[in-house]
Design goal:
This protein is α/β, with parallel strands linked by helices. The chain is built from 9 helices and 9 strands. A 5-stranded parallel β-sheet has the order 2-7-1-8-9, with helices on both faces. The chain has a 4-stranded mixed β-sheet with strand order 4-3-6-5. A hairpin with a 2-residue loop joins strand 5 and strand 6. The longest helix is centred in the last third of the chain and has 16 residues.
Length: about 210
């Protein structure tokens, strides 16, 4: 068990198609100390998505009931669907170790208000042309849906200025290295090291 004062809460946001989910999967596969907190959503599963893995897929009425009971740490409406992160799930994950949330910018700022120590990371595409190509390449959305996602992306990307770090996902391997470096650097901050390695600091006489 880890004290929440020693655990890190990382929040990753990006416009649809920027490669956020691929980065999260690669990061989690390479970092056993990091665990993701799965959000709830009212949208239908896409492709091979599974309930409880990518999201908890719930009905609009179920979502509203959870929201009414104050169960969400953050919630937002994105592309016409509701998304929310369980407060209890985040607290449980932080008690076990570092946590990662993959959520919309609106939710990220709500998390920052509740957890000022949260580390907010925004992923940008290298260009609008690249973003359009990635959205089209997924083969999941009609042209009018892609056009709407691109329009939404322009409004979302200006929010990057409110985040701590920005990664431009042009070359995937480089973007992943940059994401990993943020995680490692956060773990090495003085306050985190002092809390996590208290015995070392005490032995050195600097506690």
């Amino acid at each position: 068990m880890q004290d929440q004062d020693t655990a890190n809460l990382f929040v990753l946001s990006a416009p649809s198609g920027a490669g956020k989910s691929s980065l999260v999967r690669a990061l989690l596969a390479a970092d056993p100390l990091l665990g993701v907190t799965v959000s709830h959503t009212t949208r239908a599963p896409r492709g091979a998505e599974q309930h409880g893995r990518e999201y908890f897929f719930v009905s609009a009425s179920e979502f509203a009931a959870m929201q009414g009971r104050g169960e969400f740490l953050e919630s937002a409406t994105v592309h016409g669907h509701s998304y929310g992160t369980s407060r209890q799930a985040v607290q449980a994950r932080l008690a076990a170790g570092d946590a990662l949330l993959e959520i919309d910018w609106q939710g990220a700022l709500q998390v920052r208000a509740a957890f000022p120590q949260a580390v907010l990371i925004f992923v940008l595409p290298p260009s609008m042309q690249a973003l359009r190509a990635r959205l089209a390449g997924r083969g999941e959305d009609a042209p009018e849906v892609i056009a709407q996602r691109l329009a939404n992306a322009r409004a979302e990307m200006v929010r990057a200025a409110q985040f701590d770090f920005v990664i431009i996902n042009d070359v995937f391997e480089q973007a992943l290295r940059e994401l990993q470096s943020i995680v490692v650097a956060q773990r090495l901050k003085y306050a985190r090291q002092r809390a996590a390695q208290a015995d070392v600091f005490t032995a050195l006489g600097i506690a």
